[in-house]
């Protein structure tokens, strides 16, 4: 379930449904499968996430929060199960021709106060590559599953690597810029 709209207008049902759909179902259903994989001493858990779990865009805050939960859960899980020969891979697709923005999403009422933001978002999407065909991901995912050392995270499609590289470069620069404040917060006076 994907909620589209301003965070401050997303009520408890929208927040609950986003987390239930993106993290709740996975965490609730993974235990029996994990026990089977542990017994056999090997396995590979593949979870579809999104670049929305690594970066954020306006009007998708609830969706982002639920995908960031998926990312943290999977990264922790990968460390917990590695000793049992179990691998975890998060598939983080870019734009594909799916129903992601259609009937599978809950769209909040567009507020006049946010109209300029919605226009900017529409203009940004107009300049992007056309979405890929989701069927084209099959062979890539099978290669990942068959890999001896599969990645924890893998992007699929055009654009995600450049987008995340830009975002993470900006994050690192901001942390470095504020490093004196960060270090000052850990200095103790005697």
Shape: globular
The number of domains: 1
Number of strands: 5
Subunit arrangement of the protein: single chain
Sheet/helix structural class: alpha/beta
The N- and C-terminal alpha carbons lie at a distance of 53 Å
Low-confidence region ranges: none
Q: Rg from C-alpha positions?
A: 19 Å
Order of helices and strands: EHEHEEHHEHH
Identify the CATH class. Answer: Alpha Beta
Summed over residues and divided by their number, the pLDDT gives a mean of 82
CATH topology: Rossmann fold
Detailed description of the structure:
This protein is of the alpha/beta class and 190 residues long. It has one domain: Rossmann fold. Helices cover 51% and strands 13% of the residues. It has six helices and five strands, in the order βαβαββααβαα. The chain has helices at 12-40, 61-81, 115-126, 137-146, 160-177, 179-184; strands at residues 2-4, 43-48, 86-93, 105-107, 153-156. The strands form two sheets. A three-stranded parallel β-sheet has the order 2-3-5, sandwiched between helices. β2 (43-48), α2 and β3 form a beta-alpha-beta unit. α1 packs parallel to α2 (61-81). The protein starts with a strand and ends in a 6-residue tail after the last helix. The relative contact order is 0.15. The model has no long low-confidence stretch (mean pLDDT 82).
Defining traits:
190 residues; 3-stranded parallel β-sheet; two-stranded parallel ribbon; 6 helices; 13% strand; globular
Structure described in brief:
The chain has 190 residues and is of the alpha/beta class.
């Amino acid at each position: 379930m994907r909620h589209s709209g301003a965070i401050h207008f997303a009520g408890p049902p929208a927040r609950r449904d986003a987390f239930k759909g993106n993290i709740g179902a996975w965490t609730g259903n993974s235990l029996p499968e994990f026990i089977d994989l542990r017994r056999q001493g090997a396995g590979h858990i593949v979870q579809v996430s999104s670049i929305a779990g690594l970066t954020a865009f306006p009007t998708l805050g609830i969706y982002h929060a639920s995908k960031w939960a998926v990312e943290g859960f999977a990264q922790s899980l990968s460390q917990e199960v590695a000793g049992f020969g179990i691998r975890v891979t998060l598939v983080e697709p870019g734009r594909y021709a799916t129903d992601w923005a259609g009937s599978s999403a809950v769209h909040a009422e567009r507020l006049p106060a946010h109209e300029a933001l919605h226009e900017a978002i529409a203009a940004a999407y107009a300049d992007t590559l056309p979405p890929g065909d989701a069927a084209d991901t099959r062979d890539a995912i099978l290669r990942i599953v068959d890999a001896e050392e599969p990645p924890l995270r893998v992007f699929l499609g055009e654009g995600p690597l450049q987008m995340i590289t830009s975002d993470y470069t900006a994050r690192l620069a901001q942390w470095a810029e504020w490093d004196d404040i960060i270090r000052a917060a850990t200095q103790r006076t005697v």
